[in-house]
Amino acid sequence: MNKQVICEIDGQYFGLDSLLVRSIENGKAEMLLEETPDFCEGIIKFRGEWVPLIRLRTLLNIDKSEEPRLSQIIYFKTSFGTLGFRVDKVVEIDNIDDKDLQTIPIVANSGKTAYVGGACCHHGRIIVIFNHEKLINQDDLSRISKGLKAVYEAEEAERRRKEEEEARRKAEEEEAKRKAEEEEAEHKAEEEETKHKAEEEETEHKAEEEETKRKAEEEEAKRKAEEEAAKCKAAEGKTKKDQEKEEAGQQLTEDSAADTKSAGKSENVGVGPEEPKTGEKKKKAKSEVKKSGKSEKKKK
C-alpha cells in the first residue's frame, strides 16, 4: 500500500508518491529561463533555492481547457533535484493498494506513455500513477539544468559584485574614518601646541612681571635705605652741630663768667692788661656760634 497525492489536470486524475512530496503551495514563476522547453514556466524560489516550475498541462499535452486561476504547485523530490509541478488542484491524499494498480500502455489524450507507472480505479475515478523519473526526458532536463546554472552563475556574480561593492564601501568608510581620526589627532595636536605656547607665554609674562616687581622692590628698598642713611647722616650732623653749639655756648658762658670775675679783680686790684684777652675770647665764641648757625641753614 502506498499513499498518493491525487491531483486533477483538465478533468483527469494523477497520483504522485506522497513520500517524495515536499510541499503543496500556491505561486507563480519569479524568473524565466532562456532556451528551456515550453512546459517550463520558469523558476520559483522555494526554501532558499531556485526550483524549475513544470506546467503538467503542457508537458502531458492535455491543455484543452483554460487553466484555473487558483492552480497549485506540488514541490516534488527527484534525482534531478526538487521540481515544482503545476496542477489544477490537489484533490486528496489517500492510500492506493499496489495490487489495484494495472499497467496501461496507452493513456487517452497523450502521445507519451513512458511516465505512466500504472493506473487504478479509486473512488470512482481513474487514477494514473506517475513514474516521476520518466516524466521529463534527459534532453529537456539538460536544457533546464543549463538555464538554472546560468541563473546561479548570474546570482553568484551579483553576490560577488555586491560583496566587492560592500568591501569597497567599507574600505572607503575605513579610509574616511582614518582620515577623520588623523585630522582630529592633528587638530588636537595643534590645540595642545597652542595651549602649550599660551602657557609658555603666560609663564614668561609672569616671570617678567615677577622680575619687574623684584626690581621695583629692590629699587624701593634701595631708595628707603638711602633715605634712612641720609636721615641718619643728617641726624648725626645735627647732633654734632648741636654739640658744638652747646660747647660753644658753654664756652661763652664760661668766658663771660671769667670776664666778669677778671673785671672784678681789676677793679679791686687795678690790673688792666687782662681785658683785651677776655674780649678776644668773646669774639671767637660769637664767631663759632654764627658759623654753626649758617651751616645749619645750608643743610635745611
Describe the model.
This protein is an alpha+beta fold and 300 residues long. Among the domains are: 135 residues, CheA-289, Domain 4 (OB fold (Dihydrolipoamide Acetyltransferase, E2P)), CATH 2.40.50.180; 72 residues. The chain has a 5-stranded mixed beta sheet with strand order 8-1-2-10-9, with no helix packed on it. Helix 2 runs antiparallel to helix 3. The longest helix has 132 residues. The protein is rod-shaped and about 200 Å long.
Given helix and strand content, the structural type is alpha+beta
- The CATH class assignment of the domain at 2-136 is Mainly Beta
Give the overall average pLDDT: 83
What does the main sheet amount to? 5 strands, mixed
What would you give as the CATH superfamily of the domain at 2-136?
A: CheA-289, Domain 4
CATH architecture of the domain at 2-136: Beta Barrel
Strand segment tally: 10
Low-confidence stretches: 106-111, 270-276
Q: What fold name goes in the CATH topology slot of the domain at 2-136?
A: OB fold (Dihydrolipoamide Acetyltransferase, E2P)
Put simply, the count of helices is 3
Widest β-sheet, arrangement of strands = 8-1-2-10-9
Secondary-structure element pattern, one letter each: EEEEEHEEEEEHH
What portion of residues belong to β-strands? 15-25%
N-to-C CA distance = 151 Å
How much is the radius of gyration in Å?
A: 69 Å
- C-alpha geometry: rod-shaped
* Portion in helices: 40-55%
